Amino acid sequence: EAKRQRDGEAQFFQQAQEDELEDRLTLERELKHAIDHDELCLHLQPQVDAHRQVIGAEALVRWQHPERGMISPGRFIPIAEETGLILPLGHWVLKEGCRLLGEWRHQPACCHLKLSLNVSVRQFQQPDFADQVLAVIQQYDAPPERLTLELTESLLLSDPDGTICKMQQLQQRGVSFALDDFGTGYSSLAYLKLLPLDTLKIDITFVRDLTLDMQATPIAATIVALAESLGLGVIAEGVETEDQRLVLANLGCRIYQGFLFGRPVQPESFSKAIQCHQDK
Ligand code: C2E
Ligand code: MG
Ligand code: MG
Ligand code: MG
């Protein structure tokens, strides 16, 4: 009896594993199709300063699946990274982001805004990554000084020299860099100093716990102090409440991103909101 039950369980788990694998294979095939057939889009989330003025936006990729509806990047970016599809996907994001920046040049309400794009490690590690970025900037006549690339700490684990070299090449042309999800990875502080970075982004996990009646988590405080001592800007991610904003402001953080100020929306809605706000 016990053996039969064990066999049954084993079968159940094997079936579940097979289903999961099949799901992923289907998603992989469909994602490939999506990249080539314009099923991806960028949504924009505002980044605001201490006066709640929008100073820029982060572009977040979305997959508008014809049957399954909107799929979030948390579901398909990991698959894209495992399968290598992150390269064409990342290039699509780069093109679409630079196309938007090129359009904004001609929109008085948006021409001063910066746009941040997320770049995967694997995408950045392509030997010709910097050349790709410069070519796309040129193709869409995007102002490089309005473009920020968000990198993650894991880049530093493998090839710090190559990373610094590519970053410098792009920085010389005006592109800025932010370190995303800061505090969740393994940054060596020694490397942090060597990187031509502009901004540290405090990860949402350190913002979530901030409340007025509690001491600010030492981590958020430490990141702000670290950024200051390295001469870097700092952006807090995932700010949802006025209390969180206040605590961050008291720590010396001046730029915020989160649902308190706006959710990611389609680029047309984003531009319209900026325009309306300025007309007021
Ligand atoms: P991320 O770059 O750290 O982006 C911030 C995530 O936090 C976004 O999730 C955003 O919608 C969410 N967020 C913003 N404000 C709030 C808030 O106040 N509360 C909460 N709970 N969440 C907030 P999203 O769009 O689902 O993206 C998840 C991750 O997927 C991104 O994290 C990024 O790592 C990756 N990703 C998104 N777009 C791209 C892309 O174009 N390329 C690459 N390589 N990765 C991307
Ligand atoms: Mg990001
Ligand atoms: Mg982040
Ligand atoms: Mg994140």
UniProtKB/TrEMBL annotation:
Q: Where is the signal peptide?
A: none
Q: Where is the EAL domain?
A: 24-278
Organism's domain of life?
Bacteria
Q: What is this protein called?
A: PAS domain S-box-containing protein/diguanylate cyclase (GGDEF) domain-containing protein
- The organism is Vreelandella arcis
**Parent-protein start and end of this portion:** 548 to 827 of 827
